[in-house]
Write a structure and sequence with these properties.
The structure is a homodimer of 199-residue chains. Chain A folds into 2 domains: 53 residues, Homeodomain-like (Arc Repressor Mutant, subunit A); 138 residues. Helices cover 67% and strands 0% of the residues of chain A. Chain A is elongated, with a radius of gyration of 18 Å. Chains A and B meet through helix 6, helix 7, helix 8 and helix 9 of A and helix 6, helix 7, helix 8 and helix 9 of B. The structure holds a DNA duplex (18 and 18 nucleotides).
Chain lengths: 199, 199
DNA sequence: GTCTATACTCGGATAGAC
DNA sequence: GTCTATCCGAGTATAGAC
């Protein structure tokens, strides 16, 4: 129960908190990211911050949602409107994906937050559980549109690409030398059997 | 500093602890796996257990090492002897990999432990940091032997396969419906351009 | 709505007896 | 080598004043 009554203010403040949190973790990294630390960075006391979120877990889950929102806007992913009539150009999606990943390698804190929650979300009680289920579907939906293999069904293809993206992040966290974007790029190129020769 | 002096006993006991821990987590899952809980399962007090390991982190890192040891024996991975003269049959490696993965989907607790530590190991101070660096090399070394793509350099190919394996685990933790082994199997098959027709 | 203060829990680590 | 006991820190959550 975050806010009751006049929640116009409440919602706005919530947004503001999420934006700031996102910024802080992106900038300063995910240390032990405690509610207290975030609160200070946001300019609130710990109790003040928890006035807007039920728990730390909920806060962080919402942060990830907000991040997706940003990424979608900034890099133009198909999001939930993947069903709309516009036939999306696979090459455009491919390009967006690469740019998101390239961007990710500049915000290790967010990547760590994401990966950490991805594991904790194994527990169905965790607020992030549903988030990861939904997000997985969205991500795979986008990848399916780029499916370009005759030996792999599109859904399997999509799941594999999602796995590569997530798995590379784990490698990169341990060894920041790993060129996530470059590798995905090579993979996508290799999978495009038929060279996308322009007419 | 786990043991000094007559460490014959110490080493043996350490092994025994690791075996039991492995068994407990495999069987009962990784709950919040605290040292205390493991200690009880192992038949020791918390302090008694920590007599053999410097910290919780070290304990769990060693557990992962022990697990790799088992997997290597049980499924015949190339391990560190990947440099030996014997030319290893790619098909055999491929088969081992599938079997390891199939096995993994029966021990969610171990998969969770692995994934959790993989993230925590981002910190170079973490005992598991080196473990993951080394293990990554070993795993990729094995995958390189199976490289079967003319459009991808073997090291990139290997890194991608590692990423798929790790990434699928994350998906599977959130949704145990995901057929990790099946997907990897399809991928490997798809990547084998030239059908491995026997002479 | 926000703060201060506090309570509570958990878990890891350590001291010291046996 | 193992236990009991204890300590200590971290971190979340809550109560209550303003």
């Amino acid at each position: 129960m975050a806010q009751r009554g006049s929640y116009a203010k409440g919602v706005a403040k919530r947004e503001e908190i999420l934006e700031r949190t996102l910024d802080v973790i992106a900038t300063e990294g995910y240390d032990g990211a405690s509610v207290k630390r975030i609160a200070e960075a946001v300019g609130l006391s710990q109790a003040g911050l928890l006035h807007y979120f039920d728990s730390k877990e909920e806060l962080f889950t919402e942060v990830l949602r907000k991040r997706d929102e940003h990424d979608g806007e900034q890099f133009g992913l198909p999001d939930d409107r993947s069903k709309d009539a516009d036939p999306v150009d696979p090459a455009v999606i491919r390009d967006s994906v690469i740019r998101v990943i390239r961007h990710n390698s500049e915000v290790p804190g967010l990547v760590e937050l994401f990966s950490r929650l991805a594991v904790e979300a194994a527990n169905p009680e965790h607020p992030a559980h549903d988030y990861f289920l939904e997000r997985g579907e969205t991500v795979r939906g986008a990848f399916e549109l780029t499916a370009a293999s005759d030996s792999l069904p599109p859904d399997v293809y999509a799941r594999i690409l999602q796995a590569v993206a997530d798995g590379l992040q784990l490698q990169w966290l341990v060894d920041p030398t790993v060129d996530m974007a470059g590798i995905i790029d090579q993979l996508l190129a290799a999978l495009e059997q038929k060279p996308a020769a322009t007419p």
